[in-house]
Design brief:
Number of strands: 18
CATH superfamily of the domain at 6-82 and 160-191 and 347-370: ATPase, nucleotide binding domain
Low-confidence stretches: none
Shape: globular
Strand content: 25-35%
Order of helices and strands: EEEEEHEEHEEEHEHHEEEHHEEHEHEH
Largest sheet: 5 strands, mixed
CATH topology of the domain at 6-82 and 160-191 and 347-370: Nucleotidyltransferase, domain 5
Helix content: 25-40%
Radius of gyration: 22 Å
C-alpha cells in the first residue's frame, strides 16, 4: 500500500461505503476507489441485521484491495451519530505568574477532564474556544502569554458495543491499524471553513432512515442528536398510501416537485410492469409533505432539548440524501422550522451528491490524522 493512500469506511443508514483516496493539490481529495454496499442499516442505536455486517465489511475491503491492488493495513471508521453522544466541559488552569501557553498546557486541560462512562469510550476531542485571562476569547492560545486559561472542550463518546464489534470484524479482515471518528464530527471539520465554524455551524444530515442534528463551533461540537427518521420513511409512506411497491415508491419520490402548486388533473407517471400509471400530484405531494413535517418537528425537538443555544440568524446547513434531493424539500423544511435552509456544497465540487458528504468527510479526517 502506497504511503499516500488512505482508507475510510463509513456507515450510512442505507449503505456501507469504503473510500480509498489521497491528498491532492490544495488539500483536495483524490478518490482512487469507491465501494458501496447496501445493507439494512440501523435504528435507535442498533444494527437492524447485525449478523450480516461482517460479510458486508469483508466484501468492501476485499473489493477495494482488488481494485487498488494493495493490502489494506490501516483504516478509519466513521461512527454514526446514533452510536455516539457529545459532552462539553469548561476547564480552567491558573499559573503562578504569566507564562507562554504551550501544547502541553492544552494537553493537560483535555487530560484533566473527568469522563468515566463504562458503556462508552471517548473517540474524538475538540476545542470549542479558549479564554485567556477573563475575556480574551481565542481559537488557538499556543504561544500567547497569560496567567489563566479557560477552555470549552468537546468530547465525543461512542458505544462500546459498536466499537468492540467493528474492531473484531476489521481485525478478522487482516487490518491492524484502526481509528474511529464520529461521522458528524468529521463533517464539521470537512464541510465548513474555520470562519464558518467560529460563528457556529448548524447542520442537519437527513439520510435514508436516520437523521443527525449538530451544532458545532470552533473545532468542537456543542450539541449532537440523532433520530431514526429519513427519506426511506417518505418512500414507505408513498408505498403504503398509494398501494404501490416500495421500489415504485422510490422511483416516484425522484419525480416529486414540492415547489409548485399542482392542479387536480396533474399527475406523475410511473412505469409498473411495463405500463404507465398516473399518480395524482396533489395526493403524492401531500404524502411527502406530511412526512417532511414530521421530520421537521423532530428536528425542532432536538433544538429545544439542547444544552447550548445558538444565534437565530444562522442557517440550517442540509446534507444527506433524505430530503436534499427532493425538489422543494429544503424550502418546505425552511417554512416549517422558520429558519433559512441551505444545501451544503461539497468542498471543491468533488460531487454534487450530498449523500457522500459523510464518507468524504471521514476520508478527509483519515488523511489529516495519518499524514
Amino acid at each position: 500500500m502506497a504511503s499516500r493512500e488512505f482508507v475510510a469506511l463509513d456507515f450510512g443508514s442505507q449503505k456501507i461505503t469504503l473510500l480509498v483516496g489521497t491528498k491532492d493539490v490544495n488539500n483536495t481529495l483524490n478518490i482512487k476507489c469507491t465501494i458501496a454496499e447496501n445493507y439494512e442499516g440501523f435504528m435507535d442505536g442498533e444494527f437492524i441485521a447485525a449478523d450480516k455486517i461482517e460479510n458486508i465489511i469483508f466484501n468492501c475491503i476485499k473489493k477495494a484491495e482488488r481494485v487498488c491492488d494493495f493490502k489494506i493495513r490501516s483504516i478509519v471508521i466513521g461512527v454514526p451519530t446514533e452510536f455516539c453522544f457529545c459532552m462539553c466541559k469548561n476547564i480552567t488552569k491558573t499559573f503562578l505568574k504569566q507564562r507562554r501557553i504551550t501544547q502541553k498546557d492544552i494537553d493537560d486541560l483535555f487530560n484533566s477532564a473527568d469522563i468515566n462512562i463504562k458503556t462508552h469510550t471517548v473517540i474524538n476531542t475538540g476545542s470549542v474556544y479558549y479564554v485567556l485571562g477573563e475575556k480574551n476569547r481565542v481559537n488557538d492560545p499556543i504561544g500567547q502569554t497569560e496567567s489563566k486559561i479557560t477552555a470549552c472542550l468537546s468530547f465525543i463518546l461512542a458505544d462500546n458495543n459498536f466499537l468492540n464489534k467493528i474492531t473484531k470484524i476489521i481485525a478478522k479482515c487482516g487490518v491492524g491499524n484502526i481509528d474511529f471518528v464520529c461521522s458528524a464530527f468529521a463533517q464539521s471539520l470537512y464541510l465548513f471553513s474555520e470562519e464558518e465554524r467560529d460563528k457556529y455551524v448548524l447542520m442537519v444530515d437527513c439520510g435514508y432512515i436516520s437523521t443527525t442534528v449538530m451544532l458545532a463551533r470552533g473545532n468542537g461540537i456543542l450539541n449532537l442528536t440523532s433520530f431514526s427518521l429519513g427519506g426511506g420513511f417518505i418512500s414507505a409512506d408513498l408505498s403504503k398510501c398509494l398501494k404501490i411497491s416500495f421500489k415504485d415508491a422510490e422511483h416516484l419520490l425522484r419525480k416529486i416537485v414540492l415547489c409548485i402548486e399542482p392542479e387536480e388533473q396533474d399527475t406523475y407517471d410511473i412505469v409498473v410492469e411495463q405500463k404507465s400509471i398516473p399518480i395524482s400530484m396533489k395526493i403524492a405531494n401531500a404524502i411527502v409533505e406530511s412526512r417532511i413535517e414530521v421530520i421537521a418537528k423532530t428536528i425542532q425537538k432536538c433544538f429545544n432539548s439542547w444544552q447550548y443555544n445558538f444565534p437565530d440568524f444562522i442557517p440550517i446547513k442540509l446534507t444527506g440524501g433524505g430530503i436534499s434531493f427532493i425538489k422543494g424539500g429544503k424550502d418546505l423544511l425552511s417554512k416549517i422550522l422558520g429558519k433559512n435552509v441551505e444545501i451544503i456544497q461539497i468542498p471543491y465540487n468533488i460531487t454534487s451528491k450530498t449523500n457522500f458528504s459523510s464518507s468524504l468527510a471521514v476520508l478527509n479526517y483519515a488523511i489529516n490524522i495519518k499524514s
